[in-house]
Amino acid sequence: MFSARVIAAAALIAALPIAAQASQELATSKNCMACHSVDKKLVGPAYKDIAAKYKGDKAAPGQLSQSILKGSSGKWGPIPMPPNPVSEADASTLAKWVLSL
Predict the structure, then answer these.
(1) What confidence tens digit (pLDDT) does each residue in 53-65 have?
(2) Which backbone phi and psi does 74 adopt, to 5 degrees?
(3) For 33-76, how does the pLDDT look when each residue is reduced to its tens digit (9 = 90+)?
């Protein structure tokens, strides 16, 4: 019937929307959505704009993760982004989610 690889691949594909939703829930739980939204600028840029700016940049996940952890300024205008007190794992998850949009 189905090989273990086919079943594993189907399970992974089925979980992708859940993972994306889980990352948006993580962003909400860490107060990221107070300044950002997925598709429109609030205080900070829209996540889709961030993803577009860094599309194809292999260093982007690490850079964005560090910006989440340490804060940043001057990348998107005069308003600085403060550091977010999240774990490195959460910062990495958030960065990968933003870049996937």
Answers:
(1) 999 999 999 999 9
(2) 85, -5
(3) 999 999 999 999 999 999 999 999 999 999 999 999 999 999 99
Residue owning tokens 């939703």: 21
What is the per-residue DSSP string for the chain?
---HHHHHHHHHHHHHHHHHHHHHHHHHHTTGGGT--SSS-SSS--HHHHHHHTTT-TTHHHHHHHHHHH-B-SSSSSSPBPP----HHHHHHHHHHHHH-
Q: Where are the domains of the chain?
A: 4-100
Cα(46)–Cα(41) distance, integer angstroms: 5
Distance, in Å, from the CA atom of 5 to the CA atom of 95, rounded to the nearest integer, reads 29
Q: Architecture of domain 4-100 in CATH? A: Orthogonal Bundle (1.10)
